[in-house]
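Issue 218. Parser rejects a valid record. Input:
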Amino acid sequence: MSSTPWVARTSPHARLRLFCFPYAGGGSSLFRLWPQQLPPELDVCPVLLPGRETRWHEPLFTHLPSLVQALAEGLYPVLDVPFAFFGHSLGALIGFELARRLARSRRAAPTHLFVAAHRAPQLPLPASPLHILPDPEFINALYRLGGTPVAILQNEEMMRLMLPILRADFTLYETYTYTPEEPLACPVTAFGGEQDRLVSMQELAGWREQTTSFFTMTIIPGDHFFLHSHQSLVLQAIRQALLL
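Output the parser choked on:
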């Protein structure tokens, strides 16, 4: 069985692998319960990004094309069965650009791309960049966005560990430059939060331009982080899309 530091483990008996990319500041633990709630023939593979969890000693990425190149090389040994990508917020952007890179290489390509809580990549970012803010202002901005537990934001020791990760991830996101290319050949499912103040339904619908195959937009109750509050609805839609 092939292995890679980019995922904790893979099943040699998988019929389909689902690689999962976290939002800014998140890690593979976001998806720890997914294998229990999805069919066993679907191998859930949370992606381990450098600079956190078991890879905390490795340098953080702040340049998205460099991260995508490293992912394409690092995940290739475990792209030996059909696979799909799921990404939430920043993770959606990573999954999208990785799918495009793999399509260009013609070595492998995902059978489905699931993107959650992220506007279509061809649309500009509306807000001023946060990654350049001084620490106190950056933390206040994180508090307003939600997603990071207040208990962590108020814990100085925890924030000393988390701030470099969050700042690096926001740099990845906020310095991203979209380059027009041929649309993906695989189906795309875009998830949006009904009460998400950061991504509008119109911005979510723009993902339709990124595929020549089927496009589905699925609206989930909750805000930008509906992945926590309504995880079961997301997993149900994934099962239906993958015909599991």
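Fixed in the parser; the record now loads. The chain has a mean pLDDT of 92.
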